[in-house]
Amino acid sequence: MRSRINAMDIERSGRWLEENPSEELEGWPVCKQYDVQRGEIIAGFPPEDFEGWDIPWPLEEAPDLFLRFARLHEEPDFEQAACTFAHEYGLPDGTTIVSPFTGYKRPFPDRMDISRLLDESRRAWIVLALYESVLNQDVEQARALISDLQGDRTFEWYFRLHRMEQAARTRFPPELVLALEAAVFVAKGVSDRLCTARISLSLDDAVELDSSCIRTNWHFDNLLGVIYLQMYRLITSGGGLTRCNYCGRMIALSYTDPRGRKRRRDRKYCDDACRQAHHRSKERSTDSPS
């Protein structure tokens, strides 16, 4: 299997919350029921029905949320997969209302077009694919991605002729330079636009008046902001990805799972289903006549 992001690096990127205990994060509303109606995924309870909603903490409970979201678009039954994702993490965006939970006007995840959700998942996958081509030094993959993205509103600016000419003057393959630039700055641009770090002072338990009194609260406009903040931190920290030995999908070697347990750094499968399927396929090949 080709080398990808170093497993030791993902440990660093996955621990950013533990290494910055002064950073606090908002929750994101998840409805207890979602339905598909006329091309939309719609929450089964209105925003003011508090009993119909939970408020999980996405950055803490799903450190590889960006990866789960990016591979959604590969699912053969996207509509069903999108509903499953919404039930677990909420919709990435929604209708702008005055939130009954915060009292502020912001997008509330009560409905989202399925077509837009598919487009957003594909965009997240492209950022990962571009970055992966750089890590693998795969010029052909980068070139193919750049060719496919000509005319794409999100990425075309990074692949214009004058930028290719600038990249060609470096000592690196220009396709890889452009792929890295696009991956970094698209992820940064979205997270900058949708996430805001708010600083406050906490003096109740302070022993000295120093930086330990400072608290940072991450406010995000919608779940896409969380997804791209994760992605940007992964890229800039050199984080770690690997491939499932059975289905070939990418796996994030996150430091902890949602229950706080450390994940194996030599993880080889997405889940138990892929592990068992891989073992069954090996048994069939062993039992088949030579």
Summarize the entry for a quick read.
It contains 11 helices and 12 strands. It has helices at about 5-15, 15-20, 60, 65-70, 80-90, 115-135, 140-150, 160-170, 175-195, 225-235, 270-285; strands at about 25, 30, 35, 40-45, 55, 95-100, 105-110, 110-115, 195-200, 215-220, 240-245, 250.
Describe this structure in words.
Helix 6 (114-135) packs parallel to helix 10, helix 7 (139-148) crosses helix 9 and helix 9 packs across helix 10. The chain is 43% helix and 16% strand. A hairpin with a 2-residue loop joins strand 3 (34-37) and strand 4 (40-43). It has one domain (7-287). The longest helix has 22 residues, at 114-135. It contains eleven helices and twelve strands.
Summed up, the helix count is 11
Low-confidence stretches: 1-23, 254-263
Report the biggest beta sheet as strand number plus sense, adding barrel if it closes.
Answer: 3 strands, mixed
Instruction: Please tell me what the overall shape is.
Output: globular
The ordered string of helix (H) and strand (E) elements is HHEEEEEHHHEEEHHHHEEHEEH
Helix content: 40-55%
Note the gap between the termini: 26 Å
Average per-residue pLDDT, rounded, comes to 80
Radius of gyration: 21 Å
User: Helix/strand/pairing class, anyone?
Assistant: alpha+beta
Count of individual domains? 1
Strand content: 15-25%
Main β-sheet, spatial strand arrangement = 1-10-9
**Overall number of strands:** 12
